[in-house]
User: Which sequence fits this backbone?
């Protein structure tokens, strides 16, 4: 359904597991990368301050949280600068890895993103993937929201280069109409993940485990017990069908692009970056203060709730089309409200 590489299937060396969130997936991937780089010795002795992780300045903050939890340390997370589209610059990644190796450090994890939180930027996976493969570094790809677009064959270019990834995740709870929480996490080498997380106390020993008759998903994530999340995802897929999901995704992209066109046509506003898909980053040309006022007033109205970010240090408003019951008229109404509020404020 997603056009993902065969290597993520449990019929080969890989496999998938449903986690609560993309944050947990990034953390599990980081732990596996850490253990692969230290031949399981970080699990035994703890981290010695030499492990290094990499992401872009635009990567979701959950990766920073993961490096703190995993004992890598925030100072050992390298935030690589981005290009004009807010995508990670592979040349700078190469430079940084070289510097770190020269300093005796151990690069163990790169997180690349398909659809960054702030602006939906797409990191160049083929280039990053080749670097990681050459350097033997675990590559995790975070497709939290935008990953869902791959349900449509015409959007699968977004995940070009995913074949280099050691792990990948996307969130059906973001753009696949599934109630929170539900994150699909795939690994190419399940043994690396399982060896990292597996513990077998006496009270968990049983015949099904010993004979290999079951997959023990407790070794694929942090908690022992797990919710039956696959059931709700299955019902969503069964309800819409693959074609139904594609229709919704295509509509959302179309309406996002339509909204962007309305922004372009109103001289009071500008796009902060051309929207690749369904997230539109825009602002009033009057500056941060005006944008803050517009957003506060809109959010206080109770009719719409906009979130913001900073792109190149400028306050930017974000409108994302992706909810289950959103229709074109809601997007049109949102734009009308934004225009009316701009009229009042500026
Ligand atoms: C790109 C990206 N990664 C990760 C996350 C974190 O998602 P979760 O709430 O599933 O941990 C987000 C949330 O907005 C995101 O946009």
Assistant:
């Amino acid at each position: 359904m997603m056009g993902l590489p065969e290597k993520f299937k449990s019929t080969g060396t890989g496999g998938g597991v449903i986690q609560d969130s993309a944050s947990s997936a990034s953390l599990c991937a980081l732990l596996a990368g850490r253990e692969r780089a230290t031949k399981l010795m970080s699990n035994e002795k703890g981290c010695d301050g030499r492990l290094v992780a990499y992401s872009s300045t635009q990567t979701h903050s959950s990766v920073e949280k993961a490096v703190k939890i995993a004992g890598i340390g925030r100072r050992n997370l390298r935030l690589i600068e981005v290009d004009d589209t807010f995508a990670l610059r592979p040349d700078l990644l190469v430079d940084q890895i070289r510097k770190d190796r020269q300093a005796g450090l151990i690069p163990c994890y790169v997180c690349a993103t398909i659809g960054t939180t702030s602006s939906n930027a797409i990191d160049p996976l083929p280039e990053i993937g080749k670097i990681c493969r050459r350097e033997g570094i675990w590559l995790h790809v975070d497709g939290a929201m935008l990953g869902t677009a791959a349900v449509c064959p015409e959007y699968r270019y977004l995940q070009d280069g995913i074949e280099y990834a050691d792990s990948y995740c996307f969130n059906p709870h973001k753009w696949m109409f599934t109630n929170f929480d539900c994150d699909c996490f795939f690994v190419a080498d399940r043994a690396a993940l399982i060896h990292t997380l597996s513990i077998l106390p006496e009270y968990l020993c049983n015949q099904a485990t010993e004979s290999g008759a079951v997959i023990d998903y407790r070794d694929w994530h942090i908690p022992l017990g797990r919710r039956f999340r696959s059931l709700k995802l299955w019902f969503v897929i069964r309800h819409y069908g693959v074609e139904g999901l594609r229709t919704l995704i295509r509509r959302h992209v179309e309406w996002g692009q339509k909204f962007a066109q309305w922004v372009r046509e109103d001289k009071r506003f500008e796009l902060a970056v051309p929207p690749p898909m369904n997230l539109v980053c825009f602002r009033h040309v009057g500056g941060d203060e005006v944008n803050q006022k517009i957003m506060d007033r809109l959010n206080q109205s109770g009719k719409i709730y906009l979130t913001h970010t900073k792109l190149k240090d400028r306050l930017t408003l974000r409108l994302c089309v992706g909810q289950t019951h959103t229709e074109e008229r809601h997007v049109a109404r949102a734009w009308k409200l934004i225009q009316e509020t701009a009229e009042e404020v500026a």
About this structure: The radius of gyration is 21 Å. The chain has a mean pLDDT of 97. The chain has two domains: 6-227, 242-345.
